[in-house]
Write a structure and sequence with these properties.
Elements lengths: L8 H18 L2 H12 L3 H12 L5 H7 L5 H17 L7 H19 L1 H10 L3 H30 L8 H15 L5 H10 L2 H39 L4 H29 L1 H21 L5 H12 L2 H13 L1
Length: about 325
């Protein structure tokens, strides 16, 4: 039975909850990275490659879209949080950097499998308010990156780096809840119907200009975001702060980003996607520069502003993509 054009709050919130659980575990790397650097005597170059490995599988997202009409995509939404949680929570037990790299690669693959179908599922239950739906979806992800650093640092304080595997059961229980609530939502037909309308070559030809712009914006935004999300705690420790202070700074960045995603996606429904993006594109670099030159706790409000603008692009870009596909 197809959904009407109304906004289905309960379904949107549940998908946002799944996003929260999944991304809570993917955010474990940055807070524990200083401990891994010390444990394995890693260089900063090698440390940056670990973060890259976690994001590398995102390059296969277009191919996952092509395979979507042959898969029950809702199962990816249900199972990926548990797969990601298991991989990330075993990092503390890893005996070598090679094992850590494999775990991060598994995490990246699981993350890619989760993030391809979920925006389509959100669009299906958001009616005519796609920007609002994407805002709530990304709000879950950003809140996760606020909770994740505090959660893993708390686990390290209680059980040590080797004991963070004890956080796995929460994700397993969440996958059970997602199975109960989401198992009947069909989304593969959304991919299939789109692929039936146009041939692959024609679709690629018509979509290329749009996605070149989209990829360009995403690339330059990702440089800023990746630097902050991966190295902010390490950066703060190099400035003489403690690991907990680094975790607090990362949480402030992410919670400000959470409210940014909630605001900008909803606001883009009102003023238009292009106008909202123009504001963010100019504001984020200014905040980034200001944060780099201000020292001490005075930099915290600037960091919050940076998160508010920087993370706000994601729901807008997702809404643009879904608008383009309709």
């Amino acid at each position: 039975m197809p959904y009407k054009k109304s906004f289905h709050t309960g379904k949107v919130m549940l998908i946002s909850y799944g996003h929260l659980v999944h991304d809570t575990y993917t955010s474990f790397l940055a807070p524990v990275l200083p401990l891994l650097i010390e444990k394995f005597s890693l260089s900063y170059s090698l440390s940056s490659l670990l973060g890259l490995l976690q994001r590398l599988p995102n390059l296969v997202n277009p191919f996952l879209g092509l395979l979507a009409d042959r898969m029950a995509m809702r199962w990816l939404v249900i199972l990926s949080p548990s797969i990601t949680a298991i991989a990330m929570s075993l990092i503390g037990l890893a005996p070598s950097v090679t094992v850590i790299a494999i775990l991060l690669l598994v995490t990246g693959i699981s993350s890619a499998l989760f993030h391809v179908p979920t925006p389509v599922m959100v669009r299906k239950v958001s009616g005519d308010e796609i920007g609002r739906g994407m805002s709530w979806y990304m709000f879950g992800g950003e809140i996760a990156r606020t909770i994740g650093p505090l959660m893993v640092l708390g686990a390290v304080s209680l059980w040590g780096l080797e004991g963070i595997w004890k956080l796995i059961p929460f994700a397993l229980a969440s996958s059970v809840l997602l199975y109960v609530k989401l198992r009947k939502i069909q989304i593969s037909d959304e991919f299939r119907n789109q692929s039936d309308i146009k041939g692959l070559k024609e679709t690629f030809k018509q979509s290329t200009p749009f996605f070149i712009i989209l990829v360009g914006m995403t690339f330059f935004r990702s440089i800023m975001r990746s630097a902050l999300s991966t190295f902010l705690p390490t950066y703060m420790m190099l400035k003489g702060e403690t690991l907990w202070v680094g975790g607090i700074y990362l949480s402030v960045l992410e919670i400000a980003g959470a409210f940014g995603t909630l605001f900008w996606g909803y606001y883009s429904d009102r003023i238009g996607r292009r106008k909202a993006l123009n504001i963010i594109v100019y504001a984020a670099p200014v905040c980034m520069f200001a944060f780099s030159v201000i020292n001490g706790w005075a930099s915290l409000p600037v960091l919050a502003l940076l998160g508010f603008f920087l993370m706000g692009t994601t729901p807008i870009l997702l809404a643009l993509t879904q608008d383009y596909g309709t």
